[in-house]
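Re: the request from the purification team.
They wanted to know what the chain is likely to look like in 3D before they choose a buffer screen. I agreed to run a prediction and write the result into the notebook, where they can find it.
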Amino acid sequence: MARLLLLAYEFAPFRGGIATVVEGLAQGASELGHDVHVVAPDYHADQRAADGVRPYTVHRFAGDFCSIQSLDKLTAFARRCREAIRSIEPDLIHGTDPQSQMALTALSRIGGVREYIFTIHGTELLRYRSEWLPRLWMAGAFGRVRGIASVSRAVGARLERDFRVSRDRWIVSYPGIASAWHETPASDRGAVRASWGVSDEEVVLVTLGRRVREKGHALTVEACALLPRELRDRVLYVVVGGGPVAYAAALERAAGAAGVRLALAGELDEAASIRAQDGADLFVMPSQRTPRRLEGFGLAYIEAASRGVPAIAADTGGAAEAVVDGETGVVLPEAVTPGLLADALRQLILDPERRKMLGERARLRAVSFTFRRHAGEVYGHFLGS
């Protein structure tokens, strides 16, 4: 077994897809018997109680979220990473997020580190090409790293195409989801739906993720507005997640004008999010690629699948790898229109047996998405190579 050092600026209690992956990797590697150490910010709060029950060691430093455009914070983080590497003397160093990738790249240029790996999530690749500081800082970075774990084939293909990283230097390992999604007993579906004022005959659409434009909430509202009145009246669209207040207000205005029932649930903890999925009929997240963001994989699709909820996605980034078209849900073209989405919704609303079949297959597929498996693939490959 090895001593692993995971460097992370996005880590619990910070919430987000990357933080979930990093926490899961640390947990999974610990379950496999590795001696795991994580370097992460304290987010200006005492984290000792939460960290004390983890099966791995967390080394906190004073700080909060750091943008990859924050030169001072990135430089300070690189120094902390160097100190941790010297004191812990790990067998393998893992840059798990964009900030740690940049820190390790800086250290490699001054001889402070040689053997390390990255996890690439997708969005950072867009920013390494388009923003001056990340582009300058990361010049030549992928030629120095020992190897890369990509969260999807789509992200790996972008590594090859845009950064000329040869195929033998990266692997694909799909992230897992928290064990609670697999293990929590099913909620009382009727009670969940009653809390929304919805009957068994009605259809609940759920989107769970950051409440930002690229997740496709507005597109979903537009698609619902195109449904025949008798179907639209049967639909409730529940949006779970935090985000800009102005965007939430715009969604409410659009839904109200179109006669679409919309419930903005806000940010929920894990237990409440699971409960929301247990009351859903369809998970709908037609994510859109923007110059700054890419759906590298899409853990939310797998979380929904683990509760037996089929998904509708757009073929953006790795979403078509998280949702298997015709098996665990429906994948629409990347340039999906409200009309195309409305047609997919109409077909699934009118076919509860197909929804059930897709949901059952989604649940079966989701069983393999554990962080123990993910950690085994990543560290088994790079420790064995």
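For the purification team: The chain has two domains: 3-176+370-384, 180-366.
Please add any questions underneath this entry.
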